[in-house]
Amino acid sequence: MEVEVKLRLPDSTSHQKFADAISPFHTKTMIQENVFFDGADSELSSKLAVLRLRFYDGDSRCIVSLKAKPVILEGISRIEEEEEEFDPAMGRACIAEPWRLNEVTSSRVLSRAIKEFGVKSFVCLGGFRNVRQVYHWKGLKLELDETQYDFGTSYEIECESGDPDEAKRLIEGFLKENGIQHSYSEVSKFAVFRSRKLP
Q1: What is the dihedral of CA 11, 168, 199, 195, to 10 degrees?
Q2: How far apart, in whole angstroms, are the C-alpha atoms of residue 154 and residue 8?
Q3: What is the pLDDT, as a whole number, of residue 153?
């Protein structure tokens, strides 16, 4: 189970204001490309699940994830997640020809999608790009996202934590101290992508 604080920033000004305020704690910036898949008969989405390939900084790294049963309440997201490393070249080939996902027998994530969810063949749903800035602050790993959909851009702070209520309290305190507007995220990035409507 992945548990994260998710706070939405209203615009690029708030995003830049947060980045400036927390800049001493910046550790890295990653360019992520997220591409999603479902079964041809909606075997995953009908069970509130989705398969994702995430590419980092071009093709330097790729992770395949199976996410299921998302719940977001008061800025805290809980979702079942299983993930593993995936060959970037094979990942690119699977975007062009999704049937190749069924042929990767070495992946436990893909095996679970096929066996547990009954996916007979995969279809590519498309995806979006994300610029993620990472900060280590007060024992927390904060991720500042600028998510670029083909219908607009959204901004969000994420923080995975074993104590999400305390993490949320600290982050909201920092936002208030620095006069940065925010709200609780109500839907996942994938849900925004599928709705084609910014929150």
Answers
A1: 130
A2: 8
A3: 98
